Amino acid sequence: MKERPDLIDALLTVDNRIATLTLNRDDVRNELTGTKLVDDIEKTVDWVNAEESICALIVTGAGKAFSSGGNVKHMLNRAGSFGGDVYDVQKHYREGIQRIPLAMHRLEAPSIAAINGPAIGAGFDLACMCDIRIASDNATMAESFINVGIIPGDSGAWFLQRLIGYQLAAELTFSGRVIKADEAKTLGIVLDVVPGARLAECANQIAASYAARPPRALRLAKRLMKSAQRMELRDFLDHCAVFQGICHNTADHLEAVSSLLEKRSPAFSGR
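Below the sequence we write its predicted structure tokens.
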């Protein structure tokens, strides 16, 4: 296994081909703009992409919050990411928090957001960047940028409408209202709502179901779904044919077919 990245404000653990990234700044509710979490997330994605044995990445928060997003005190004082003239601010965004959506969008392994508490603003958007979301029953979420007089500058307007459709995304964006976990499930934002004490267990169960699949086919399936969002059908079918050619020539494909016919559990090698 490749050497794990040196993280500052997050913890990275690995168990049975499942990586878990825990945002570890409970002292500031895991906010993203005044910490090193942007760097940590980007480093983790690059490591997972290079370490092909990893079949799923769980993203969660330490303490009471998943992530509170941007540092509101810095906004008030025009400090950090929010300081300077118009050019400076756009540069801070491009070189700072906007690295998160670019990283999460290029992540090749399936990702699961285990939303353990409030996911607000950019913190909510981070959850929406994941493939799957499950929430603690005490979690709350908000596309809350309008409440502080700004827009979703970290890609929230791109991800949210692709997740739940334009109308619902527009209502949450224009109102900035806070929703509870049950409403998030009704809207299709989260896959399931579970008791807080069982959140990590449930996230790991989902991740383990992915880790039990052929690793190469799993990553190719995710790449295929991402490319389907931006390709015309004919080009996409050509893309499918190439990926399928790769899959048919893997040892894991033969193992999957053999185990199915022999009525036994497969033993995938990642080859």
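The chain is about 45% helix and 15% strand.
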